[in-house]
Write a structure and sequence with these properties.
This protein has about 70 residues and is mainly α. Helices cover about 65% and strands about 0% of the residues. The chain has 4 helices and no strands. It has helices at about 15-20, 25-35, 40-50, 60-70. α1 crosses α3 (about 40-50). The longest helix is centred in the last third of the chain and has 14 residues, at about 60-70. About 20% of the residues are buried. The mean pLDDT is about 90.
């Protein structure tokens, strides 16, 4: 899936938000692989998710927040 804000395959904060919010399974797999290669990307994921965790129904963001916290610990 082509995502908004994806700038030459660089995952900006907006692109990470789009992948988490609108992405399908393969998009999440790609994000996971990229995040495991780059700790800074995990920090971006955490930063994006912090903006959404106030919503108890934003389960995608809760999932990714816990995932990022686990690998950053």
């Amino acid at each position: 899936m082509l995502h908004r804000h994806l700038n030459h395959q660089n995952l900006t904060l907006a692109a990470v938000d789009d992948v988490i919010g609108r992405g399908k399974r393969q998009d999440w797999v790609d994000l996971r692989c990229a995040a495991l290669r780059d700790r800074a990307l995990l920090e971006k994921v955490l930063r994006v998710c912090q903006a959404h965790v106030g919503d108890p129904y934003a389960q995608r963001y809760h999932f990714w927040k816990h995932y990022a916290e686990r690998y950053l610990a």
